[in-house]
Amino acid sequence: MEATSSTTLALSSPPTAAARRSPAKAIVTSHHLRHSSVPALHLRAVPGPSFRALPSPGFPGWRRKRGSGLVVRAEMFGQLTTGLESAWNKLRGTDQLTKDNIAEPMRDIRRALLEADVSLPVVRSFIESVTEKAVGTDVIRGVKPEQQLVKVVNDELVQLMGGEVSDLVFAKTAPTVILLAGLQGVGKTTVCAKLAYYLKKMGKSCMLIAADVYRPAAIDQLTILGKQVGVPVYSEGTEAKPSQIAKNGIKEAKSKKTDVIIVDTAGRLQVDKAMMSELKEVKRAVNPTEVLLVVDAMTGQEAASLVSTFNVEIGITGAILTKLDGDSRGGAALSIKEVSGKPIKFVGRGERMEDLEPFYPDRMAQRILGMGDVLSFVEKAQEVMRQEDAEELQKKILSAKFNFNDFLKQTQAIAQMGSFSRIIGMIPGMNKVTPAQIREAEKNLKFMESMINVMTPEERERPELLAESRERRIRVAKESGKNERQVSQLVAQLFRMRAQMQKMMGAMQGQDTPDMEGLMDSIKAEEQAAAGTGKRRRKYGNLRRRDLDAMRGFRRR
Ligand SMILES: Nc1nc2c(ncn2[C@@H]2O[C@H](COP(=O)(O)OP(=O)(O)OP(=O)(O)O)[C@@H](O)[C@H]2O)c(=O)[nH]1
């Protein structure tokens, strides 16, 4: 079993015979936990193999308990995990999430994020959106409020960190050039080799270019690491100009038909003009596909503002966050995307060459919360709810009771699932819809919602009331700022939907032969139907015949 970020406690003294026989069990005793300097919740037993390769104390994140011979490492983001735990605990015994009862847990979450070194504006907007979503979520049967809050916080954390994994971009025609930048000591040179190792595993051929001419040891270090991962390193010593070295290196790589070139540049102790102008020059010379800023996770929100600064100064495509293994707080991982608008593409989680992996916001959120089982439980419960809702809707459609509440629920469900345009794009055969048509559809949804919102609960439940009473339609029009005709059209549309849905459901349930063509024809015919006579207009307002027919239809059913 491999040591993971959460399996991080071991003894520096030689293991006992018992420990050697059954290492994972023999490592931690309650005595160790009681006397450790790190809160017990951050400690987990290191499985057997970790006995072999314990880094020395002083390594980021590792602490030696004085006198005890115990070496412990803070679990990645452990501090944040513990801080959030008190929030869930405060909701125990409540039956629903309300604005009042989440106030205190939200204060705990806020505190935990600030202590994790997440930047204040990010914390503010995070708290705002979690509060809004938590209070607005439907109660799911069997799911406790604290579990529901865990799910909301998880989803928001995923969004905060960029939502989806941001893949490395490759040039359409090889070679792909990746330019790495960063301050001194953040792990840039190590990342060069780790990235080459990662790409090699993907089947890409790589070359490293040593363009850090100020620190001779950096060239040696890159050469050694290159050998270690079996990737050639191009260098011209410390005399040539970095932009020229990079240019020559690329020429050489092209002649060898290399897929990916990684350029290591010089770091400085802090951001300065000389470094920026040199980077700009190298960037111009190599025209990179990716410009990645390497930042140290242990520097917290400082890392996020560095990403912003480099992006403004030289224009970058993303960040690589190193030393995440030693970061018990998490401020950098949580702030970078929100503060800079640039995604984290990779994270470094150790000194070994294989310790670089793509950044998965969802896995990271789960790691922070440490509640994978709660999340999958809530997701399953939500799925059951969705199924029950669908069955309920089916029953309603078949008994012709599809009303404005269902209408609203459906449209809001679409809104909740994300942009309408994305949903339409996912429906097979619908990708020919133009963006203008999509915008129009979204506008229509809002338009209809404004009318439904001013209907009485009774009118929403029984649209027949509106079909029968012109006074009601006029009232709805007035209160929603629309005209009577628009309200009548909405009511008519609901009845048309009912009729069409019933027809379709009947066909699906075998009550009727599926005649989709006929159905589409009748919809088209309705679209082209002529306007009503003058007499009708006086009685029903400015309504077209198809609207009147649809509104009357409910009487026949
Ligand atoms: N724990 C841990 N250590 C890392 C990680 N990445 C790099 N390091 C260590 O950080 C130290 C500095 O790494 P370098 O690659 O030399 O840093 P650099 O940014 O190239 O430094 P300059 O060349 O001076 O700019 C080394 O001891 C690395 O082993 C990581 O993800 N986790």
TrEMBL record:
Residues 1-22, 523-557 are annotated as: Disordered. Keywords: GTP-binding, Hydrolase, Nucleotide-binding, Ribonucleoprotein, RNA-binding, Signal recognition particle. One of its GO terms (molecular function) is GTP binding. The keyword Iron does not apply. Residues 544-557 have a biased composition (Basic and acidic residues). The keyword Hydrolase applies. Residues 534-543 have a biased composition (Basic residues). InterPro entries: AAA+_ATPase, P-loop_NTPase, Signal_recog_part_SRP54_M_sf, Signal_recog_particl_SRP54_hlx, Signal_recog_particle_SRP54_M, SRP, SRP54, SRP54_GTPase_dom. It is an enzyme of class 3 (hydrolase). SUPFAM superfamilies: P-loop containing nucleoside triphosphate hydrolases, Signal peptide-binding domain. Coiled coil: none annotated. It holds the Pfam family SRP54. CDD domains: SRP_G. It catalyses: GTP + H2O = GDP + phosphate + H(+). GO terms for biological process: SRP-dependent cotranslational protein targeting to membrane. Its EC number is 3.6.5.4. One of its GO terms (cellular component) is signal recognition particle, endoplasmic reticulum targeting. Residues 343-356 form the SRP54-type proteins GTP-binding domain. Residues 1-21 have a biased composition (Low complexity). Belongs to the GTP-binding SRP family. SRP54 subfamily. PANTHER family: OS11G0153700 PROTEIN, SIGNAL RECOGNITION PARTICLE 54K PROTEIN SRP54. This is signal-recognition-particle GTPase. It comes from Oryza sativa subsp. indica.
